[in-house]
């Protein structure tokens, strides 16, 4: 049975919420709606970060989540300045961009219908309105049609779009990843994609290996096993099969400006995950 909100969506929102509460300046990313979206579970999640925030696994989780959010929203802003007017969030989870959106862009949130229903209930409970600039496209990534769901939600495939695919690929089978890329490969020229992906064990540093040991097994036990890993060259080759060229492929350290790593807290980059920015 698909849970209302996946554990990974909750832990990612908790990492965004905890970052300004637990970590020192400079802030990598600030999400004022992360705590409200956690709802009744907010205190439980945030207390854990407050009490154990310096633990390497929790610190690595916060770093990974806030880096990918900052990188993606910075690239999105650049794309909108160049004329992109559609933003597709694949596996939107508890991402809050659509409800604090300062940009002239329409947001299409793609996720499992039960997750979307749970999110909308949390938004209502928090008193956060759903603006006209957001549409929901329910889909099961392993079985449903992304293209059909987006079109039903009002997406225009003839206009360029910016696509974010964060915290998802590791949980998908290679076949499901290819099906999704095949759908994205039909988007209009000028479309862009930002995705994060986990690298194979041989490319991880000790922090990345420790995180994988501590988190990978737990994820499998709760029904969300890690399934897919890529070296940067493998990711570039895969994207090229579907008409995308890599514009940037960054590790956690390079994904944000160097000044954000002048820190006095426990946040530090690891080599567990990377971010790829690609265009058509």
Mind explaining what this structure looks like?
This protein is of the alpha/beta class. Helices cover 41% and strands 15% of the residues. It has helices at residues 7-22, 34-38, 42-52, 56-81, 113-125, 146-152, 174-184, 206-221, 232-241; strands spanning 86-90, 106-111, 134-138, 161-165, 192-198, 245-251, 273-279. Helix 5 links the parallel strand 2 and strand 3.
Q: Tell me the Rg in angstroms.
A: 18 Å
SS strand fraction:
15-25%
Mass-distribution shape: globular
Largest sheet strand order? 3-2-1-4-5-7-6
Decide which structural class fits the backbone. Answer: alpha/beta
Count of separate DSSP helical elements: 9
Instruction: Quote the average pLDDT.
Output: 95
Order of helices and strands: HHHHEEHEHEHEHHEE
Distance between the termini: 37 Å
Number of strands: 7
Write the layout of secondary structure elements.
Layout: H1 7-22, H2 34-38, H3 42-52, H4 56-81, E1 86-90, E2 106-111, H5 113-125, E3 134-138, H6 146-152, E4 161-165, H7 174-184, E5 192-198, H8 206-221, H9 232-241, E6 245-251, E7 273-279
Parallel strand pairs: 1-2, 1-4, 2-3, 4-5
Antiparallel strand pairs: 5-7, 6-7
Helix pairs in contact: 1-3, 1-4, 4-8
């Amino acid at each position: 049975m698909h849970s209302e909100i996946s554990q990974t969506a909750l832990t990612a929102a908790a990492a965004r919420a905890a970052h300004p509460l637990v970590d020192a300046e400079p802030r990598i990313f600030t999400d004022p709606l992360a705590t409200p979206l956690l709802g009744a579970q907010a205190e439980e999640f945030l207390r854990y970060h407050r009490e154990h925030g310096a633990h390497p696994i929790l610190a690595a989780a916060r770093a990974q989540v806030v880096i990918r959010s900052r990188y993606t929203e910075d690239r999105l802003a650049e794309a909108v300045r160049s004329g992109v007017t559609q933003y597709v969030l694949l596996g939107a989870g508890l991402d809050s961009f659509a409800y604090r959106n300062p940009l002239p862009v329409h947001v299409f949130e793609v996720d499992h219908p039960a997750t979307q229903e749970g999110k909308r209930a949390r938004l209502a409970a928090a008193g956060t309105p759903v603006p006209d600039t957001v549409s929901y496209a329910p889909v099961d990534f392993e079985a449903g049609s992304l293209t059909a769901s987006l079109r039903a939600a009002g997406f225009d495939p003839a206009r360029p779009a910016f696509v974010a695919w964060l915290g998802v690929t590791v949980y998908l089978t290679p076949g499901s990843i290819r099906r999704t890329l095949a759908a994205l490969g039909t988007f209009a020229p000028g479309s862009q994609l930002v995705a994060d992906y986990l690298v194979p064990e041989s490319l991880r540093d000790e922090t990345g290996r420790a995180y994988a040991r501590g988190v990978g097994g737990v994820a499998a036990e709760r029904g969300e096993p890690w399934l897919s890993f890529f070296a940067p060259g493998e990711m570039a080759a895969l994207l090229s099969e579907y008409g995308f060229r890599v514009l940037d492929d960054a590790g956690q350290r390079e994904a944000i400006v160097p000044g954000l790593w002048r820190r006095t807290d426990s946040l530090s980059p690891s080599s567990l995950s990377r971010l790829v920015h690609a265009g058509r």
